[in-house]
Each structure stands twice: as C-alpha cells, then as structure tokens.
Amino acid sequence: MMTSYKQIYILCPYGLVTGGSDALHQLVFYINQVHKDKATLVYCDRKERDLSIPSSYQEYISKYALLEDIPDEKDILLIVPETLYFHLDNYHNLKKYIWWLSIDKNTSQTSTNKIKDIIKKLFSIKTWKRIFSGYYSKEKIKDFKNNTPYDFTSEKDDIIHLCASHYAFDTIKQKSKNESHLLVEPISLYYLKKGPYQKHDERKKQVLYNPVKSGAYVKELSRKRKDISFIPLTGYNQDELLELYRHSLLYVDFGPFPGAERMPKEACYNGCLIITGRNGASNYYEDVLLPDEDKFIVSKENINPVLDRIDAMLNDPDKYYQEEQPYFERISALEANFLKAIEELF
Prior knowledge:
This protein is of the alpha/beta class. It contains 13 helices and eleven strands.
C-alpha cells in the first residue's frame, strides 16, 4: 500500500501527557526514522506559535507545526487520532487517515451516556481546576463539543483507518467499508531504552494497579483481603514507576481496555505477572496474550476466584512466568513490527 507523500502531518492535542499523546509523538519519531524528516507533529488546540514541547516528548520531536501550517495538497498525508476526526472535514485535497488508539467512546457511546459524561465532568473538581487555570482554551471547548461518536453511516470513501489494537481492527472492519490496517505502537521509548527486565528474585509480594481504571474493584478485593498489599500507581514519575514494576510480583488491571493499554505492557516488560479483566481489548488474545485463567469478568461473583489467582501467583510466581511469556515476547517485538508497518504504509 506504500504511497509517496511529500509530508506527513500528525495531529495531537497540546498539553496532555497520556498514552495516546505518547503514541502520536512516537508515530512522528518512528516515521522519521524510516523516512527522514517526512513527519511533523501538529499541536491543534493552541493558537500561540511559541509552545514548549512537554519534557516527556522531547526525545521524540524537536519541532512542531500548527493547524494553519498544513497545506491542503494531494501529496500531503494528514493522520488524526479518533478523538480529532472532525478536523478532517476542513481538508479536501490531502490524504486522510484516522488512527484508532481507542475504540469504545467514539463508536458505541449513546446519547444517554454522553449526557451522563457531561454531567460527571461538570461536577468534577478536576474540571473546575482546569477552568480556573485557563486550561480550557476556545479550541479545547470546540474539540469537546465536536467530539461526538464517529458516524460510519455517512463516512466518506477518502478516509483510511489505522488501528492500534486487534480489537479496534475487528470493530472497524465490522462498521466501515473503507480500507483499514493494523498499526500497533510500542511501549514508550523510555522503557525501551532501559531494556527488558525479567529478573524475578528480590520482588515484593505486592500488587500494582491503576486506581483510575481499577480502583473500585481493587477496593472490593482489598476489603476482603487486608493482608495483600495493593499499591496504586499514582503520583509517581517514570523512574519511580520503573522501580515499582521491577520489584513487584504482580500487576492487575480490571478497567476498560478501549485499546491495548500501556501500563500492563510496561509492567509485563519489566517482569510483573499480569491479571486483567475481560473488557474490550483485554478480552482479545492477540492484544493481551495471557492465558484465559489470568482474565476475569469483573463481578462480585468473581472476587474470590480473583483473590485465589492473586494468592497463587504471589506464593508461587515461578509456576506462572512461563505461561505469560508469549505476552512478554509480543511486547518486546512491538517496536520492530511498528517500523515494518510504517515501511509498508507510508
């Protein structure tokens, strides 16, 4: 499918340090490794030209563009994440790709859910802090208003889909008649530079989790088993996270998996055993290559089976490392596969 483009632009919201933003910066970085200086990141929610690149992303890019810098020409490619798909309506000549880093919110969100989400955001302390800090620019508010689910029924045939998970790929294939391809990004360059860490001695019998996505269920687990040490991964920098990954036995994630999710992959790459729920991409073996016994439907009925599995892994980890080796091997191969996909796509 490879096509010769004069320049490739990738849209990214400015000021967010998330797995999605990291992936967009990564895409620019890796395209430029394959095709020198062909890719440019576009910060799309600030009008000021003098923006500082977040420190987390300075290893990926040294320059950026703004929306007005994108030429609407036939030999130009514009790639947008699924949350910014509406920007494509402003262009009529260039080639258009949507990269589905996440899939659920922009394909299955109902009007009732949208109303609930808006009410939840309005009463969020985080939202009001952002309002008073000036975080919400006019363009951010516009993006929020425009960020309704993507309408496949009226989709134009000039859009090509890229999918960052097999879960997204299967969903898009069911909903769209347009061309679609897998493009699964690696874990962050920070961890790749450190290299894999599979030493299993001197690890603590503690369970790491993301409180934003798994907090409610882990709270139920910890109520029943106060003797198990559950460590919420919040407030840590990358160096501190790395140390926790490398000196803990287990990471659990019972939250939604709208994409392949970064934190379980980071934890596995650094030697943690993994237990997940069966939501979205976590229910896809090709995205999360774990044995069925390490994946659970998140329910009250499964609290005891989950705790039994946690006990087994903490008390006899050597028994389970080999079973989860395919997941580690897939994660280790992501960077090479990403470069190969870039060669084939661009």
